[in-house]
Amino acid sequence: MTNEEWVKRLWSTTAVIVVGSSLLGSLYAWKADWTYSASMLVYGACGMFSLLRLRSAIASSRSASHPPGAAPTHPPADASATIPGALDWDDARWSELRGGYRVPYDPRPALAKLEQAADAPAAFEELWNELHHQGDVDTASYAAVPHLVQLYAKHRQQGVNTYSLLGCIESERRAAHNPPIPTWLGAGYEEAWRRLGQLALDDLVRTTDASLTRAAMGALAIARDLPQAGEILLFLEDDELEELLTQYRG
């Protein structure tokens, strides 16, 4: 018998005892003799015994479900948000980074707006403009990636924007004319994309929104080293996809 079944039986037994005690109390209330007193003592003792067994069974059930040292079934919402290797917020190198225009750009003010959920669309508009320009990305683009993933893991907002911008940065990073990721950003960047793939899988299970589904599928394809498929999902409009399929079908 499982702990849960044992607990249910104890609850039933206790209920019977309580009801029985009440009925006997009603029957013998008019007689102040030893029969009434003895009956109440017996039922009271049985009730106490059952309650003690019930408490023990509940404690055993909880111990079995959550043994000492076991990880919680549902970790905190932001437990997966910290990315090792992400550039520290107060690192002096932020001021040396360059954006898509090949000029110095510090993305921290825009990222801070996303953290505070203050005018997120405007913050993303700035990031789109500054981190990417006509196919060009640079070190500020790479440094922003882990922080954008952390923010999405924490708040789960602006999913389409997040997946699309990160997909754009990663796609353009592969172009020969863009600089490689600096060694000191490489670990954080790689881990960010691994985490983004996990977030995309989670979104695909949970969402029914068509735009988010498509963006998550595109990001997941890129994360799994299928950049062409990812770009098609992320950046082609419906009419462009239809034209592409028409050409393919002949």
Model description:
The structure is a single chain. This protein is an all-alpha fold and 250 residues long. The protein has 2 domains: 3-65; 92-249. The protein contains 10 helices and no strands.
Q: What is this structure's SSE topology?
A:
Layout: H1 3-28, H2 34-65, H3 108-115, H4 120-131, H5 139-155, H6 159-173, H7 183-206, H8 210-223, H9 227-235, H10 238-249
Structural class of the secondary structure composition? Answer: mainly alpha
What's the helical proportion of residues? 55-70%
Count, helices: 10
Q: Note poorly predicted spans.
A: 61-79
What's this entry about, in short?
With 250 residues, this protein is mainly alpha-helical. Helices cover 68% and strands 0% of the residues.
Protein traits:
single chain, 250 residues, mainly alpha
